[in-house]
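Hi all, long-time lurker, first post. I run a small reading group and we've been trying to get comfortable going from sequence to structure in the token notation. Rather than ask abstract questions, I figured I'd post a concrete chain and ask someone more experienced to write out its structure so we can walk through it together at our next meeting. Sequence below, copied exactly:
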Amino acid sequence: MRISRGFASDNNASVHPEIMNAIANCNVGHTVGYGDDPYTEKAIERIKEEFGSETECYFMLTGTGANVVGLKSVTQTYNSIICAETAHIEEDECGAPELFTGCKLIPIEQTNGKITVESIKPHLKGFDFEHHSQPKVVSITQATELGAVYHPNEVREIADFVHSYGLILHMDGARIANAAASLNMSFKEITKDCGVDVLSFGGTKNGAMYGEAVLFFTPGLTDAFKYYRKQSMQLASKMRFISVQFEALLTNELWKRNAIHANAMAKLLSEKVKNLPNVKLLGEVESNGVFACIPKEIIEPLQEAYFFYVWDEMKSEVRWMTSWDTTEEDVNGFVETLSRLLRL
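-- Answer (accepted) --
Happy to help. Here is the structure in token form:
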């Protein structure tokens, strides 16, 4: 079997050894299932240390599950959820948010995946009008699906505006570690302290095997969550194997080490390709994603050597993602292959 590392997704990366060891170390004896175990209790304690003592935490199986159940718990079927047109909940979750919440998703204008108060304003309408879905949630992604990072003041501005209308701010934090590392700030500083109400806290893209968490920072939002989690088939029986991964990520700043490295590899890749002929970088690299336009005819042969995804086929736009386990040798080999194909 060929062992290789491509640039398709941080989902494709291997599991960090420290996390694998944590899973192995908890793989002894019997514990009570469904989260009533000491490993999960300890992981929740670590999350509260990181985000604040009033944080409520629920572990989930998947990122889509975290987004969907988090949104379901704070909405009714007559509500609407406002998000960027590039948002994962809009583009990559097969309609699950709409199916399971019953809400209408309203995708709006964005720049590099980021939305603003000005882009939200036109969609806050029809309140108390029975013929119109009622706006309830604004969802942002940190880092965005296009690799951009919201600065704390940008999140706070959105949060204050959203809250002034009685709405809830949800954050899809599948790559929250990359954003925090890019900003050199703590998780709390870019979430709870900025007014985020609900966070999908990602682990899979940051070196974990699988598993995410939904965190609530605003009291009174979780009354029905545990029931929706069960109904949505997201309640893991052997939960210790999910929760222990988050304890490992939050111990000795493993999350930060992983994210800093992934971000650095993306920056290195962008620096090495930016002056190559017929390669056009699209935007500044702020996290662990590089977006570029390259000649259409070299995409397939380049994918055969280092797999990655075409982001926009019409524009010949591609996405190159780096991970905690991406090496400089991987980057150099990729750039050498790209350079050779460009000369053909």
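A couple of things your group might point at:
The mean pLDDT is 97.
The domain at 255-343 is CATH 3.90.1150.10 (Aspartate Aminotransferase, domain 1).
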